[in-house]
Amino acid sequence: MTIALWIATGLLALVFLAAGTVKSLTPREKLVEKMGYMEDLSDGQARAVGILEFLGALGLILPAATGILPWLTPVAAFALAITMAVGTALHIKRRETAVPSLVLGVFALVVGLGWVFFG
After folding, report:
1. Is the pTM here over 0.90, yes or no?
2. Low-confidence stretches of the chain (pLDDT beneath 70)
3. What is the largest CA-CA distance in the chain?
4. Burial of 113 (0-12, 13-18, 19+ CB in 10 A)
């Protein structure tokens, strides 16, 4: 079970690391071209979402891997689930498909619960 949990955590971390890096380093005007929902966010909000996703990805891996404050790993997963819940609400408000955000949010929730019960 531990191997499956690490694989799921690693995959989730890779997705959020990539998304967070793109959102935090790319100017919002360029993001709007590919991610229409970014027009509803200010420059600071778009950057903050990217930074939160990036830090969440690090929080998924580093605490459990180093053994330093390993309880932060499920906290990071739950924080990412909340971030995706807000993203899902934004997509629903804009009448866009919310499936990717919803799936990532549920995946983050499952990973967090996995660390609570099996980690």
Report:
1. yes
2. none
3. 43
4. middle
